[in-house]
Each structure stands twice: as C-alpha cells, then as structure tokens.
Amino acid sequence: MKLENRTQLTLLREQCQEKRNKETCKILVCGGTGCLAGGSDKIFDRFSELTAGMDHVEVRIGAEIAHGEHVGVKKSGCHGFCEMGPLVHIEPMGVMYIHVTPEDCHEILERTVLGGEIIDRLVDHLEPVTRLMYEDNGHVYQTQEEIPFYAKQTRLVLKNCGHIDAEHIEDALAVGAYEAFEKAVFEMTPEAVIKTITQSNLRGRGGAGFQTGRKWSQVAGQKEKIRYVVCNGDEGDPGAFMDRSIMEGDPHRMIEGMMIAAYAVQAQEGYIYVRAEYPLAVSRLRIAIRQAEELGILGDNILGTGFSFHLHINRGAGAFVCGEGSALTASIEGKRGMPRVKPPRTVEKGLFGKPTVLNNVETYANVPMIVKHGADWYTGIGTPESPGTKAFALTGNVNNTGLIEVPMGITLREIIFDIGGGIRDGKKFKAVQIGGPSGGCLTESQLDSKMDFDSLTKIGAMIGSGGLVVMDENTCMVEVARFFMNFTQRESCGKCVPCREGTKRMLEILERIVAGEGREGDIEELEELADMIENTALCGLGKSAPKPVISTIQAFREEYEEHIRDKKCRAGICANLRNYKINPEKCKGCSKCARNCPVGAITGKIKSPYVIDSAKCIKCGACLENCSFGAVYTE
Q1: How far apart are CA 240 and CA 260, in angstroms?
Q2: What's the predicted TM-score (pTM) here?
Q3: 20 three-class SS
Q4: Residue 219 in contact with residue 356, Cβ under 8 Å?
C-alpha cells in the first residue's frame, strides 16, 4: 500500500500504535552484532516458539494485572550494555536480564512475563567487582533505568535502540518515525528547515564538529540544481561502533534525517556509504529502505507533495581514508578512495562534481528531534557551543564497556567512573585514547575535562567519531603509540609524501624503541616528523595521524626515555625489554621452567632455586607461563 497523502500516513501511524498497545508485554531480545555473536538469535527463536499462539494474555506488573491480546517478541538493536550480553529487556516492567541463554527463556516467560517475578540470578549473578554497577548498599538494581550505567546517560539518538523491532517499519512508526519529516514537508519551507538546524547549532558528529546548518545552507545556495545527500557510515576507528549500532537498531531515524536534509537542499538522490564489515547494518538499512519505498515514504512524489527522494547503499572496502569526505565520494563514484586538494569543497563540487551534503550517521540521527521539538529545545541540552548529546563507544580496561550517550559537557571522570564503573580489577587509571587514530591520550590530570568540541581542542585532543579506549596502569604508552601509528601507516592512501613516507619513518622509530633498539635523539626526531606531517599532509586524516604519538610523548616522556636509555618497559609489555628473574624464596626447585626453556637459559639443581641467564634468555615467557609457584617475574 502506497501512502498518497498526510492523512493516510496519520491513519497508518495510529494503526501501528494501536497494534503496539495491544501487546500486553514486549520481550526485546538484543539483536545487535555483539549479542548476536553471543547467540541472541537462538534466544529470539526460543521466545517466538514459546509465545506462538498465546492470545488474550494476562501479565502481572507489580501488584496489578494487565490484559492484552498477545506478547510481542522483538529483535531489537543494541541496548548498549555490551559487556553483559546477550541481553533481554522486558517491557513495561523495565526488567533487564543479562547473560541470558536459550535455556532461560521458559523460566523468564513463566516467572517474569506471566508471574511478575524477578529472576535474581539473571540480574545478580555477577562477579564481585562487576556487581558494583548493580549494587548500592546492598540494593540490587533490576530495571534498566536504575542501573548506574544507564542512569547517568541521556539517550536521545539511541532512545529507540533496544526498544523497537529494528526490522519492522510499523514499530518505528508507532514511536514517531517520520513525524519530523512530515512536519518539514507540510509545515515548513526548505529555508525554514535550514534555519532551524542552524539555530540549533548542531555540529557534525563525525569528528570535525563543523556546523551542520552552515553546510546545508552552502549547498542550498549553489547555482547547480542537481544536488546530493550522502551519509558517511564508514566508521573506521578501532573500537568505535556508534554509527553501526544506530544503523542496526534504528535505521529509520537516520534515513529520516537524510530525507529532511534532502528536502532542505532540494536534493533528489542520496547515498549511504557503509563499510562492508557491517553486514547486519547493511541488511537492516536495505530492509528499512524497501519498507519505506513500499509505503511511499521514499521514492517519487512522497505523500503527494511533489518532493521525490531515492536512497542507495554503497559498501566500502574498509579503507580508513574513506572516512574523509572527498575520498568517500570518489569511492562511491567507483574510483580509488583518495582525498583531493581543496578547494573546491564538497559543498561546491562533491559527489559526481555536484553540490553535496555530507554528514555522518549520528549527525543525521539528531536532525528529526531538532525539527520536531525545535532549536530552543536542543540548545537546552549540553553546552551553548556544543549542544545536544554525543554517543561514545566505551572500551578497554573499564568495568562496563558498551555504547553510551551523554550530554555534551559531561566530564571524562563521570563517563569512566560513574557510567563505566571504574577500572577493572581495582587497578589505577592511566590514560584514555579519545578520537581513535586521529585523537590523543588524556591522563589523570585531565579527568575533569569537559567532553565537548571546544574544551577538548584546547587541551590538544578531539572527540573524533566517539571512540574511548580506557587504559590502566599496566599499559605501555609507547606500545599504544606504535599500535595507532601502525594502523595509520597501513591505512594511508599514499597520495601525499608527508603521510605516506612520514608515518612510515615514525613507525620505524617506534618499532625500534619497543624492540629495545631505541637511540638518543629518537624522541626529537619523532617530534620533528610529527610537525612536518601535521603541517603538510593533504587531508585531515594525515594531518592528525601523529596525534597519538605526540600526546603520549607529552604526557609520558619518561616512558620513552626508559625504553631508549634504560632498555626497560615499566609495564612489562614490550617483550624485548623484559628481564626475567626467579625469586629464590618462592622457587621450589621443580625444574619445570628449565625443562620448558627453548634455549637452555635456566640452570639449577632439583629442590634448589633455579637461575635465569639473561644473556641467553630470548624473552619468550615460557618460564613465566610454566611456573606453578609464582617464582618467575619480570622487571
């Protein structure tokens, strides 16, 4: 059925809401990539099997009995609490169950859905350290809203992720999908839409933080009338999965944002550029686009307005450089993804040489809320210069890893210690890498820094796309710099000499240092190379490539000096700088270490302490792995 006018859309939305309201209870099984890897598809199938044929269901919610026609079993998007998957959320009770297995499904249905009872072992069977996020003075958090991981978040872009069926447009319509687009095309002019986005001060969530309204107005002001809207869903930063989760969990929100942008600049074609490593995101986007086209929400003469818009999906080959605008558009055109010299910029000559609006997934996902609620509502969230919220992928040595969304201006300390639950195993916080390979390291003295575009720029960091990799005291910062430089060097497109050769030279120096072959002057040479690359590289990715190295040198210069001068890695991470020793007080003289040493570097007598010959030791770690008494250690 194709909708021909606004009245028909309103009627369909009411029908979808009525259908959703008839569900006495909703069992939302996380269908995000992480939970699917943990077997959530089997959990979904089991719940579907158990609820098949259940009509006129009574469920207990607290002391009350609710009546409805059936139990809704839905495959939702990512709930965000990835550390605890597979996750199952029961509404309207608000119960969040963690580490669910198919064997738990019957008990959940009988005891919780029908009986209103909480199954303690599915909310209270965590390890003591992890339980801190669920317990407070003996109180065990049972509902999603109570859990500290969620309580300090402001989930706006991610509001529907985990709460709707990601593969059915009816569920999205029932919770307000395409209401903002409807308002835009029937109640606002294109100029009014751009004005609203401009007044909201929405800044691009892809990393640069450029004002979205300004970009749209530049495209709308071009003489060329053929224009394009492009979505960057490439998301190449290690440890980042914000855009993927939006595309998987609430694809219609992002599509709606693109449609509003297209109306604002009067574009009729749009392209979504998604990395091929996101097959689930691609699948759900295709489903969403097909369903929207079947209803007439996408396509020609949408809702009888005369406005037409068509969406296409392009899968990238996983090149990090294609996160850069001109490289991305070149890839869509079938060319090799390489940046070009600017000007002209994308807003003037972008895709196929035409004016192009290019934003990332999260930026477009913000647009419908702004159009629906107004610019003043949006500027009331976050900070004046960086309004709204930002999604982060919280990973690394932190208790609660996962996808979070917080107001701009929140401190790093709140994210890591309140939402993230602190550092694992009670260890000390050392640093956090923010912004991926293009970002830098922040240290303990910067934990109270505000997480917004301008505040981070002042301290030499950047939000980037939103990756946060937390590191504890046992992390080698020189190795961290080497890791990110290795990634950047491999991903360099090679078009410009500063990036192609400069990053290679920097990587060679870092590899020498972690191999125990560092030389005096290496640090200074790294700084000189970094300065050259930052000032002469062709694109933004190249210019920011040295940031992880420079930020670690500035904050942890003594670690570089120890690696070079003392041939020592205080974290014990760099294998060639480890010095293996045996504690004679702990050694039982069992000879197991000597028997497993591949080069015969360990000598001694049975029932007497053994000794390691450092000159012969190849630092393989076999002695450490095979010692049953903790006598072998490194320094």
Answers
A1: 26
A2: 0.89
A3: helix
A4: yes
